[in-house]
C-alpha cells in the first residue's frame, strides 16, 4: 500500500514462506498523502520473518 490509500480491508488471507503484508514506503516525499482506515483481520502467517510491515522514512522536514 502506498501514499493516499484508504478504506482497505484484508481478511481471511494465508501468508507464508517469507511473504507478508506490507504498507509503504511512507514519508520519503513531503507531497505524500496519509494512509487511512487500513484493517487486517483473521489472517494466518506461517514461515514469515515479519507478519505486517510498515516501511517508513525518517522525516526530511526541519
Automatic annotation (TrEMBL):
GO biological process entries: carbohydrate metabolic process; cell wall organization
Keywords noted in UniProt: Cell wall, Cell wall biogenesis/degradation, Glycosidase, Hydrolase, Secreted
Presence of the UniProt keyword Thylakoid in the record: no
UniProt xrefs under Pfam families: Glyco_hydro_28
tRNA-binding in keyword set: no
Cellular localization per UniProt: Secreted, Cell wall
GO molecular function: polygalacturonase activity
Protein family per UniProt: Belongs to the glycosyl hydrolase 28 family.
PANTHER family assigned: PTHR31375
Protein's UniProt name: Polygalacturonase/glycoside hydrolase family protein
Amino acid at each position: 500500500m502506498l501514499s493516499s490509500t484508504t478504506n482497505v480491508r484484508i481478511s481471511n488471507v494465508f501468508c507464508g514462506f517469507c511473504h507478508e503484508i506490507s504498507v509503504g514506503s511512507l514519508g520519503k516525499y513531503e507531497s505524500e498523502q496519509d494512509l487511512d482506515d487500513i484493517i487486517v483481520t483473521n489472517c494466518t502467517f506461517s514461515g514469515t520473518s515479519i507478519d505486517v510491515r510498515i516501511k517508513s522514512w525518517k522525516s526530511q522536514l526541519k
